[in-house]
Amino acid sequence: MAYWLLKTEPDSWSWDQQKKAGAKGEPWTGVRNTAAAKNMRAMNKGDLAFFYHTGGEKAIVGVVKIITDPYPDPEDEAWPLVDVAAVEALPKPVALAAVKAEPKLVQMTLVRNARLSVQPVSEAEWKLVRRMGGLKDK
DNA sequence: GCCAACGTTGGC
DNA sequence: GCCAACGTTGGC
């Protein structure tokens, strides 16, 4: 089981839309960056990911589940896709500023390489951000 | 709106 | 295969 972080502009794909897609999920499209694609190819069905709103909001707002193994994008088979489904919202969204203010999270890819759109998250980071977001440990 | 950081492209 | 130029992203 691995953990990830998926970035999106709420104008193009928002948490609201992700929630409406329900348990069936939606393909996570538009990744056209080799490092991000490499991370996506390393995903497995059942992995979990944070859902991050960039742009004006800049906060981790929810948790999604990777519900397929990676498969080729029918639009362009050189790039991978996975389907993701909303799991739960964070009761208290974790802002980028809060992540940066937390010394235990300075190593997070979100801080170190803000531009990467599909990022790995360590188990320690996952648990801490969940707790900061108001979710109980599982 | 600016610009630093990063990725990609293309000439050599 | 290198690297300068260029484009894009995203935080500020």
UniProtKB/TrEMBL annotation:
It comes from Amphiplicatus metriothermophilus. It comes from the Bacteria. Residues 2-132 form the EVE domain. PANTHER family: THYMOCYTE NUCLEAR PROTEIN 1. This is Predicted RNA-binding protein, contains PUA-like domain.
